[in-house]
Amino acid sequence: MPSIGYEHLFTKHHTPQKLSSRPIEEGVLKELYDVVKLGPTSGNCQPARFVFLTSGYAHERLKPALSAGNVHKAMEAPVIAIIAHDPLFFEQLPRLNKTKDLREWFAGDVGLSEETAFRNGTLQGAYLILAARALGLAAMPMSGFDSTMVEEEFLKDTGWRANFLVALGYPHETSAQNSEPPQRAPRLTFEEACLCL
């Protein structure tokens, strides 16, 4: 993969309002995950789990769980990724991290393991958004959905917990051809958001 600068990942890339109907091949999703899994997590714990909804049937199963403002965007997306995490991620630690007794440390502290799974799973979800951009895809993260419904419909046999959704697709043709980038929503300044102590 060619070197990608921060301009492509951040300054020149905007969250799209519309995606192309062009399908995303399974090989692209596998490549996407192969990039995401390389991102750092604490102790290499890798708690994130991803469910890619690629069929119209899967989209329709998700629809009742979506907030009204997200239905249209999600239904038009070629792929909707459920960003989830495995509360029992520590069962994989003996092969992911050679630190002695690390599995037992997390298994013996439910609060610590839940916090670790959520924090690092969220981090890996952010990696997915950036990796998608690097691969030429567009990504629309969504938090407006009923997580209990999503878990019951898609995750009940896994025990995974839903965190957020990401609609994935190729940039819409009209947006890609537009020479004027859309106006970016305001951001907080360094002085507002940062402390140097």
UniProtKB/TrEMBL annotation:
The keyword Oxidoreductase applies. Residues 13-170 form the Nitroreductase domain. Keywords: Oxidoreductase. Its EC number is 1.1.1.298. Gene3D superfamilies: NADH Oxidase. InterPro entries: Nitroreductase, Nitroreductase-like, Nitroreductase_HadB/RutE. One of its GO terms (molecular function) is 3-hydroxypropionate dehydrogenase (NADP+) activity. This is Malonic semialdehyde reductase.
